[in-house]
Amino acid sequence: MSNQVLPGLYVHIPFCKTKCPYCDFYSITDSTGANTFLDAVITEAGLYRDIYQEFDSLYFGGGTPSFVDDKEFARLVSGLQSLFVFSPHTEITVEMNPDDVTREKLSLYKSLGINRISLGVQSFNDKELVFLQRRHTAAGAKEAIHLIQSAGFANFGIDLINSLPGQRAKNWMKTLEEASSFKPAHISCYQLTINGATPFGKMVQEGALKLPSDEKQRNFFLSTSHFLKERGFIHYEISNFAFGEASRSRHNMKYWSHVPYLGLGPGAHSFHNNVRWWNVRSIEQYLKALSIKEMPVEGRERLSSEQLELEKLFLGLRNLEGVEISDTPCESINEVALKRLIAEKLVEIHDGKIIPTTAGYLVADRLPLLISG
Ligand code: SF4
Hints:
By secondary structure, the protein is α/β, with parallel strands linked by helices. It is built from 14 helices and 15 strands. α1 runs parallel beside α2 (70-83) and α1 (34-47) packs across α10 (283-291). It binds iron/sulfur cluster.
């Protein structure tokens, strides 16, 4: 892989102190088996040594990686470092919950080479945080950001959620104002999405919770983009804003550009040589497979060249990388349709690439279909 862009490594830490009612990620609140789990992750990593030799991004996501005991976390990082080569400038991200941020933890992370923090703030409004059943307050989030900054992490990101039921536009703008005032390198703004299997999903089905109308959600999206762009952020992917090109999430960019990645942990996904596979979404099954050194893989699919082309189009039209016209099969681009989308200001052409506009992001799922006419 030496002549290609290097792959990324993701580790899913499936423990959370409490479970948020909107969350669909695989996580459990019983962390008593965390040590055994981390051993299993190292075992799993060892099974992939012949396939992936070198990485230039490492991302600890979850779940709540910062909830893991410091010594155990250090053991995990050094276990991975002993198995794989990480290029000298590897981007190493840890997702943190504001409630877990302490000087000691940050100084340990620094000593382990972690150079990027992604902080799950979600809102700077206490009522909204209570609604989301987060375990921190707005003041706690601000304190966590101050600690991150004073520990010398210039490269930190703030994750936020909008389109909450009954959320007022002015409260969301205030959250954005607070977030940008800390001058983070990165801001992610996700719309609250409701999955049927979550407590919020059930409440929506029972009529006890109502999301904002499509028009309100559209307004949240457009006003967010406008606000952050005015403050110098690049809206480089539907939900992601970077303060300068170099602040884009190198790891996440790999998912959107078909660069190989390895995902370790329950529910993690991997991609290599046009094959995608995903792990079992159960810690018990995960541990069972690894206790006999079997890969804890639940399913895999080889993408045909048509599927790859379609995905390339689908992923490329969700971020500013766009799609190379010369790389795209003629049948995927209808010239008349493309001209219409340009006239409607949904896409633009730059340097032989089709790039989505902010309005284009809003219909990103449909853009590949619209472009093919
Ligand atoms: S802390 Fe994050 S991963 Fe854990 S339940 Fe809440 S949203 Fe999900």
